[in-house]
Write a structure and sequence with these properties.
InterPro entries: Ionotropic_Glu_rcpt, Iontro_rcpt_C, Solute-binding_3/MltF_N. It is a multi-pass membrane protein. Its main location: membrane. Keywords: Glycoprotein, Ion channel, Ion transport, Membrane, Receptor, Transmembrane, Transmembrane helix, Transport. The chain is α/β, with parallel strands linked by helices. It has 3 domains: 125 residues, Periplasmic binding protein-like II (D-Maltodextrin-Binding Protein, domain 2, 3-Layer(aba) Sandwich); 89 residues, D-Maltodextrin-Binding Protein, domain 2, CATH 3.40.190; 101 residues, Helix Hairpins (Orthogonal Bundle). The chain is built from 13 helices and 14 strands. Strands 1, 4, 5, 6, 7, 10, 11, 12, 13 and 14 form a 10-stranded mixed β-sheet that branches. Helix 9 links the parallel strand 10 and strand 11. It is elongated, with a radius of gyration of 35 Å.
């Protein structure tokens, strides 16, 4: 009886082992078949010149963040492909018509584009930025800060606080302390002097309260002045701070009435049009930045990484990208509608994004 039970258990374990082996063989065969199927398929990949995401080197080879990302994805998924260089408008049109299977570039994900073709998962988050010309600040701009509203407001508030405590100390002391005596104006002036000396911790000691009320006011003022002086000093310093560079364009609102350059069919053109801001079309980012350097336009609005990279190539210190982003964006690869390899591409994309290679790739181009 015991022998029969052991034999049954052994048979069950053997059957489970065989089942597991068959499942593994089936899975391996499926993966090999899928890889072979992918290798048998050659997809059409549209690319556009958009440094640092896609551009041609001196030897004519395509390189950049998006190009290297796609090459790693294709190697991982075992996909064959051919590259077709296109302009931005041509690439968007080819994806819409299904003339290319994939669009490899820094394409911004938008509702309008999603209505015409699909996207992979996003591979980067960025945003629109403004590039404009800056000029060194002169002594006249520095002098004007002394008459600016922020400086006058900070100085006026400080004088008001000093006067208030000077008036209090005079009220308690002028009848019992000759140091705050004389006419009303002289006494209040002495109180103001004591208030200023106490706050700045100069400590001349020529005037000091003698009454109980005056000493209580003095004690309160000594501790309060420690906090107040630091706050007012920061406010005054901030109002007098002058950037070494000045620019007329400082925010999105300043673009109204300015001469603005954008790329044709770009997400920046759509955004500015929705904001009611007029602009001029340019075919390439380099031509737009060149127009900015020559003074033909006041600002260029485009994706922040591309703007910074283009200014880096121009090596023009009078052009800068403003630090504030005017709209967040996500970059992805475009896909023609009903692309059968969509899930395969997304898995390959995520595999690269969660690897150390991706961090090194970003640092190599953007830092």
């Amino acid at each position: 009886m015991q022998f029969s039970v052991k034999l049954m258990i052994a048979r069950l374990q053997w059957n489970r082992l065989l089942t597991s082996l068959l499942w593994l063989l089936t899975l391996a065969g499926s993966m090999i078949t899928q890889a072979q199927a992918n290798n048998d398929v050659s997809i059409r990949v549209g690319i556009r010149d958009a440094a640092p995401f896609a551009f041609q080197s001196d030897n004519g080879q395509w390189q950049g963040i998006a190009i290297e990302l796609w090459q790693k994805m294709a190697d991982s998924a075992g996909i064959q492909y051919t590259l077709e260089p296109l302009s931005l408008s041509e690439l968007l049109d080819a994806l819409t018509k299904g003339e290319v299977d994939l669009g490899v570039a820094a394409l911004t994900v938008s509702q309008e584009r999603e209505a015409n073709f699909d996207f992979t998962n996003p591979f980067m988050r960025s945003g629109l930025a403004i590039a404009t010309e800056v000029t060194p600040a002169g002594w006249l701009q520095t002098a004007r800060r002394f008459f600016s509203l922020p400086f006058l407001s900070a100085a006026g508030a400080l004088i008001g606080v000093l006067f208030a405590f000077g008036l209090l100390i005079w009220w308690f002391e002028h009848r019992h302390n000759d140091e705050f005596g004389g006419t009303t104006a002289e006494g209040i002036g002495s109180g103001f002097w004591w208030s200023a000396v106490t706050m700045t911790t100069v400590g001349y000691g020529d005037k000091s309260p003698k009454t109980l009320g005056g000493r209580i006011v003095g004690l309160i003022w000594m501790f309060a002045a420690i906090i107040i002086i630091s706050g007012f000093t920061a406010a005054i310093a901030s109002s007098l701070t002058v950037s070494s560079l000045q620019t007329r364009i400082q925010s999105l609102d300043d673009l109204h009435g300015a001469k603005v350059a954008v790329l044709r069919d770009s997400s920046a053109a759509v955004f500015l049009n929705n904001e009611g801001i007029r602009f001029r079309h340019f075919e390439t980012l380099s031509s737009a930045v060149t127009a900015l350097a020559k003074g033909n336009v006041d600002a260029v609005v485009h994706d922040a990484p591309m703007l910074k990279y283009q200014l880096k190539l121009q090596a023009n210190e009078t052009l800068q990208v403003l630090p504030n982003r005017i709209e967040d964006q996500y970059y992805a690869f475009g896909l023609r509608n009903e692309m059968p390899l969509r899930e395969t591409l997304n898995r390959a994309l995520l595999q690269v994004l969660y690897s150390d290679e991706w961090d090194s790739l970003i640092q190599g181009y953007l830092e």
